[in-house]
Design brief:
Helices cover about 5% and strands about 40% of the residues. By secondary structure, the chain is mainly beta.
């Protein structure tokens, strides 16, 4: 008589149990390459330093005399979206102030919706985040030296916007929004030389300015999508400046200033609170217009 295959297998399993046979442990999955460890995480807080000149300050750059502050104006569709009047003068200023906030010099630029800046080779480099976009190189007499698009743009299109910049070892670093990269660019040939992918997470998908610390590591401002200062959860990402590897992430303590620009000065990170934030009511941040330093509350572990 033919034996049903399913009946035979079931009987064999029962016999194995009754005879005391031990079940074989499940094999561990095979993995390849180094396994990622959890990224160290810490906590920082902010301390106000001085108030910026009137207007939205959305970018910073160090100078021997003090620090440059990049003005952001909202015009066209951006002004409409924030329910603000069209500016009478579309030029955006770069203000040089000392570390008490005293105004030392003003340079006027044709940048639009400035969202990052650098200072090097005797010029300010303003990152436009609105048409015509690109990088505006302007000398100390407010003369426009060059207006270039961010490298790696699509054929027939501009290079997209930027949320930050940094002058480091004679090179210009650009936070390039479209390819989501930190690009090192030769300021003379305008050739991209290196790129570091911008690290984002599900809870912090936004990014802003970057800077280098004294050890050559890169720091970048991050944040969440939010509708108010109360809902905002800004953060920092620390990268290895040579490899681009993420070394640590940080949250800001509740009630901290809202960070945008970023610089490293005298052993501490320095940032600015523009006072206007996508998705927030105008002036929702209680520290709008302040320049502040960032201090560690809890080291990343």
């Amino acid at each position: 008589m033919a034996v049903d295959k399913r009946m035979f297998l079931a009987g064999a399993a029962a016999l194995a149990v009754s005879s005391g046979a031990k079940a074989q442990p499940a094999k561990k999955p095979i993995t390849y390459g180094p396994q990622r460890k959890a990224t160290p995480h810490g906590l920082v807080k902010t301390t106000k330093l001085f108030k910026s000149p009137p207007g939205y300050v959305n970018a910073l750059a160090l100078a021997p005399e003090g620090i440059w502050l990049g003005q952001q104006k909202l015009s066209g569709k951006a002004a409409e979206s924030y329910h603000l009047p069209e500016p009478k003068d579309l030029r955006e200023a770069a203000w040089l102030v000392d570390w008490n906030g005293k105004l030392l010099k003003t340079v006027y630029t044709n940048s639009r919706n400035t969202s990052g800046m650098a200072y090097g080779n005797g010029c300010v480099w303003m990152m436009a985040n609105q048409e015509p976009e690109g990088v505006f190189q302007v000398d100390m007499n407010s003369k426009e030296v060059a207006h270039r698009q961010i490298p790696l743009g699509l054929p027939g299109q501009d290079g997209g916007g930027s949320h930050g910049a940094q002058w480091h070892d004679g090179k210009l670093w650009i936070v390039a929004n479209r390819p989501r990269l930190m690009l090192r660019v030769d300021p003379k040939t305008w050739a991209p030389e290196a790129a570091i992918p911008i690290y984002v997470t599900e809870d912090k998908p936004r990014w802003h300015d970057m800077t280098f610390d004294a050890d050559g590591n890169i720091w970048m401002v991050t944040g969440n999508d939010s509708k108010s200062f109360k809902e905002g959860t800004p953060g920092l990402v620390k990268y290895n400046g040579k490899t681009g590897a993420v070394l640590a992430t940080y949250d800001f303590a509740p009630g901290s200033c809202d960070p945008h620009g970023l610089e490293f000065h005298n052993g501490a990170l320095v940032s600015c609170d523009a006072g206007i934030h996508p998705g927030w009511p105008n002036g929702d941040s209680p520290t709008a217009g302040w320049i502040f330093k960032i201090e560690t509350v809890k080291e990343a572990v």
